[in-house]
Amino acid sequence: xxxxxxxxxxxxxxxxxxxxxxxxxxxxxxxxxxxxxxxxxxxxxxxxxxxxxxxxxxxxxxxxxxxxxxxxxxxxxxxxxxxxxxxxxxxxxxxxxxxxxxxxxxxxxxxxxxxxxxxxxxxxxxxxxxxxxxxxxxxxxxxxxxx
Length: 147
Hints:
Layout lengths: L9 E4 L4 H21 L6 H22 L6 E7 L2 E6 L4 E6 L4 E2 L3 E8 L2 E8 L5 H17 L1
């Protein structure tokens, strides 16, 4: 039996997150240390791995922490019609939320799909207003129970 209640609009404006910056930095430094421990110093592989790792860090930091990349998701919106993502370049797309999204009081990772393309939007507790973060978790838990 489906509910006849209308779903109120939930619009989330992302902001820069210190906790996500710390996580990204820690993960990339750890990966660089692992590469340095595993790959011999005389190997040309270091010339490949470390710049690629640095470029990945720069890309992810700009996209998810600074929200300055053209592919940065700046707004996530949910209403009865479904989910909508708005990017920094003002492009908006309709997406479907995937059931493998992660929900925790400190971090929510929203996984979306549009056709064959996938999008992940990490939302740590400090990337949103605390009340908005709580409403998002309640909404996602409600969606899981109705599936």
